[in-house]
Design brief:
Order of helices and strands: EHEHEHEHEH
Helix content: 40-55%
Number of strands: 5
CATH architecture: 3-Layer(aba) Sandwich
CATH superfamily: Response regulator
Largest sheet: 5 strands, parallel
Number of domains: 1
Distance between the termini: 11 Å
Bound molecules: magnesium ion
């Protein structure tokens, strides 16, 4: 089963993402900030990470940098989530190692197409 780690400080977003991903046959874990996400990756690397940008404790960008600096054996694909207001962050996220991005709020078809682009749907 494919695995996805949903990283977002919004419980509502995590819930919506989990529901969509489960209908796409993913096994889902959740983290509410970058720190929790890094711990989860060190424990067991997921196939793909759905990553929020603005989070307390450790942001999406800080997480990407920490992930790159870590010695995780298999590198997860990263789909970065942003809002229309956050368009300027997309380039920075891609440069920091994100593979794709998705605009919030996203629906099932949009998320599925982004997962297809990174080779996981
Ligand atoms: Mg957030």
């Amino acid at each position: 089963m494919k695995t996805c780690l949903v990283v977002d400080d919004s419980k509502v977003i995590r819930k919506v993402a989990r529901h969509i991903l489960e209908t796409l046959d993913f096994s889902v874990r959740e983290a509410c900030d970058g720190r929790e996400a890094l711990d989860a990756c060190l424990e067991s690397a997921p196939d793909v990470i759905l990553l929020d940008w603005n989070m307390p404790v450790m942001s999406g960008m800080e997480f990407l940098q920490a992930l790159r600096a870590s010695d995780i054996a298999s590198r997860p694909k990263v789909v970065f989530c942003t809002t229309e207001n956050g368009m300027s962050y997309i380039r920075a996220a891609i440069e920091a190692g994100a593979d794709e991005y998705v605009m919030k709020p996203f629906d099932r078809d949009t998320l599925e197409s982004k997962l297809q682009i990174v080779g996981l749907a």
